[in-house]
Amino acid sequence: MNIVDQWLPKNVYCYSQVFCTDDYAEIMNLSPDLALNMKSILPEALVNTSQARQVSYLAGRGCALSALKMAGDVPRSTLGRTSKGLLDWPQRFVGSISHAMVEGDGVAIAVVARSNEHQSIAIDCEPVFTLDHANEIALLTASENELRLGERLGFSRELWLTMVYSLKETLFKLLYSHVNCFMPFEAAEILSFDVETGQACLMLSVDWGDLPVGQRYWLQLKDVEVDRVGRCVVSFGAE
């Protein structure tokens, strides 16, 4: 399954899965090895968490395995974790995972590319925020310039703030290897967004490791309707 079919670059492989957060059966169908070995696969921090979080974690790992298979990786049943708790992608591959949950349903999505074609790739999927949630995070997520940009483009406040959040999350994932930490939202600013193409231009507001302030990146965003989950925005970036 691919909720962003015909949208990503041809050398990027994507797999997504809609799942019920209170039923392991769908995860069993996606990747039986993951579900059968759940206790050994779940990180310690998730062992005593809710079933919804555990199912979401497994769904993401299952999507990653499926995307790796599409990219030509050898069959494997699990994926390791780095010392910082991030997914340890196999040699010759780079990738990214995102999860989104709404009440009892969720969607997981993974993208994979060969490391000789991309240094890094990143994806983020977010259900469109409620207006109350958008207002709660507005000052944390967006600058005054970004809020005015959304108004000029004619987006509702809740949709635009979801887009801003998703685009910045994608940029943070994409550039993580340059700083080895996740930067605050004010560390980047959205300069423009093309409504027709879905392309956004983001500029670094501070130095990010070896990346200088002012450097620009172009990301893609798509507004999608996900079965059982509802309206979501999906952002993607590559370098």
Question: Can you describe this structure?
Answer:
The chain is α+β, with helices and mostly antiparallel strands and 239 residues long. It folds into 2 domains: 13-118, Alpha-Beta Complex (Ribosomal Protein L22, Chain A), CATH 3.90.470; 127-227. The chain contains 8 helices and 10 strands. The chain has helices at 25-30, 32-36, 38-41, 51-70, 131-141, 144-153, 157-174, 176-179; strands at residues 13-20, 80-81, 87-88, 93-102, 105-114, 121-127, 188-193, 199-204, 216-226, 230-238. The strands form 3 sheets. Strands 6-10-9-8-7 form a 5-stranded antiparallel sheet. The chain has a 3-stranded antiparallel sheet with strand order 1-5-4. Helix 5 packs across helix 7 (157-174) and helix 6 packs across helix 7 (157-174). The radius of gyration is 18 Å and the shape is globular. The two termini are 25 Å apart. The relative contact order is 0.15.
Number of helices: 8
Nearest-integer average pLDDT: 87
Q: Total number of β-strand segments?
A: 10
The N- and C-terminal alpha carbons lie at a distance of: 25 Å
- The shape, in one word, is globular
Estimate percent helicity.
25-40%
CATH fold-type name of the largest domain: Ribosomal Protein L22, Chain A
